[in-house]
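Supplementary notes for students who missed Thursday's class. We covered one full example, reproduced here. Read the sequence, then the structure, then the short commentary at the end.
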Amino acid sequence: MQAILHIVLCTILFQYPFLATAQQDSTLTSKAVALYNKGEYELSLPVFEQSLASAKQSGDRPSQIVILDYIGHIYSQTGKIAYALQYYQQSATIADNTGNQKAAARALINIGALYEEQKDYKKALDNYSKAESIAVVMNDSSVIADCANNKGVVYEQYLNKYPEAIAEYRKALGIYSKMRDQPHLGITYNNLGIVYKYLGSYDKAIEYYKKSMQIGESTGNQFLIAANLTNVGNVYAMQKKYTEAVKYNTKGLETALKIKAMNVAVEAAGSLAEDYAGMGNFEKAYEWKTIFSQYSDSLFNSERTKEVAALESRYQTAKKEKEIIVLKDQQQINELSISKQSILLQKRNYQFAAIGGALVLLGIIAFLLYNRQQLKQKQQRENAIAAAENKERRRISREMHDDIGAGLTQITLMSEHAQTQQQPTYLSDLAAIAGTSRKLISNMGEIIWSLNPENSTTGMLFSYLREQLNNLLEYSGIQYKIKFPDTGLDLKLGNEQKRNILLATKEIVHNAVKYSHASNININAEYSNRRLTFTVEDDGCGFDATMTHSGNGIKNIKQRIQEIDGILLIQTSSGKGSSFTYELPV
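Structure (token representation):
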């Protein structure tokens, strides 16, 4: 038999949790931990039990978890697997009830370690994987390292995947080194030694075993010393160095029996039987074979296996029952939640109905206000149109009165005068009557043209104004130029704008023809930046713009430009001609 003594990590939630946070007597528990670390399991057990009772009495559940784990470790190391499982399960139950995920993960590691000692590697690996998943979520390096160490044992023993095992062990070593966790470093060194033994690297295996043993000696960990003594003895036996093998295995057995580490004792006894057989001392070999059987039977027997299975079954059943209770409670909560949601939904529906009604009411109010505003705007437009029509009527009435009425009165007076005169004077009066009639006809034509809606654009204005100016200048003996924008410029003009532009321009040109003695007259129109600009220039005698003129020509021109919001600029001087410029917005 080749002894294979792995050290599977059974973990504690905190290494020394009682010194800072525990509620029960920290001195008592610290004493128990110190005894445990030295491998004094029998002495530490009653102290832990006393500390556990104190923690239960004070209701200190975090401390209970840790103490239960320690007691489980003691029973595990002394070969009492069923008891160990029982305490680990108690620790796991408290962890689950308090929502302590870290403690739950460590409980899974501890239970997995028990299965590994029982050679049930599949269940062991399953527990380690669950624990590692929790640790990764919590980012707990120490738990990840413990899982890596124990998974390395499974890869090595169960799957024969030595590179994977070495990778897991080195992963654990890296974390323990950063944490300066000497006890756990010693355990992982031991396990690395076993892998190199399998690979035939005996010197490297012994090197790692002795590193582990040195840590055990420096920390006083008797279990670590016992395990490594036995493993070193095993490698010497494989090298047929039986004397050295017996020496190390005997020391390992003595240390294991001293602390009642029966799993180590079994491996040491089996190795001694093989050592003596290798030396040819079959009597001694038989003797140690018998001792090995006794130790082995006490550690691995069918009744104990059944007991472990029964404990696991009861634990899982209790866990399932708890889950069922939780599910029932959750179902009741869900039913209450559904009922509450139904009430809330009904309440929300009422709220939506109220909001909807309010929105409809607001919509009706808005519609009525909108209609009212539209009616108001319509009324304002109608009033504006009526005011414009009234203004236009007054303008037409004024012009009819001023121009046509005055002209008709003049014709009547001239006709009556002609009847009383002799032949020469009569003919002169008839000529005057004819001239006045023509003027009235022209004025009437202008009024009719301005009222025609078809003549509402600048293009039509320029065309009509050019015709009127040609008639006015054609037989005057004055050279003239008329320059208006292209007919493509068709801006919309009002009746008042058309009429005043026409009359103001004709009045300016008529005055120039009548009084300026000019040789040239230029009439221009331009459109820019939404403004229409007219300029009438002559090279006549000019006039003094500061003098008060007896006629109404200049006055009428200014008034017409003002009525259409225009600006008039007159530039003139005696003997240098005249310039009239006016502009208006279009």
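Commentary. The first strand starts at residue 479 and ends at 483. Residues 12-24 have pLDDT under 50 and may be disordered. If anything here is unclear, bring it to office hours.
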